Amino acid sequence: MYSWKNLQMVVTVVLLGLAAACSLFEQNVEVLQTFELRIDKPADAAMQFSVQKDVYTNTEQVQKYANDIDAFVIRKISYKVKDFAGSEAPFVSGTIEFAPSGSNEFTMLSAITSLHLKEMAEQEQESTIVLPDKTVEEKLTELLRMGSPVTFRLNAVTDNNPIAATLVVYIDALMTVEM
């Protein structure tokens, strides 16, 4: 027969095995965000401008797994231009920034230098945003992970008006959830 000590050891091993198996049931879930920053500048408008958009990041996936998120990683942020109309050679330079909605403490997400709106729209080019540093990535990641509303802003200057265009921004994130 089994002794009490052997039975304790068997039960302990089984419980440890079950605990380890629980963490083996993880699933990767894509969290995709798309939003638009619309630029509308009449011919007589100032060359400097700012447009912003509140983005509600509390997606269905974030809501569903809110208490089970083990990891959240931004894989890629990119943008493209669509719906362009205006002058022949409009270049835009400036920054794309973000902040928790309701805050004025914006963080620079990316600098844009000499972005040729007409050419990008015609060629349907997509440009990847390289985050400036780990701190910026961590700040945005935490806002997305929490499903917080985020304000994105384009602060820019153009060399030619009129301009009408939409800057479409894509955020591709991946969260690992424990099942």
UniProtKB/TrEMBL annotation:
It comes from the Bacteria. Keywords: Signal. Residues 1-26 form the signal peptide. PROSITE patterns: PROKAR_LIPOPROTEIN. This is Uncharacterized protein. It comes from Pontibacter diazotrophicus.
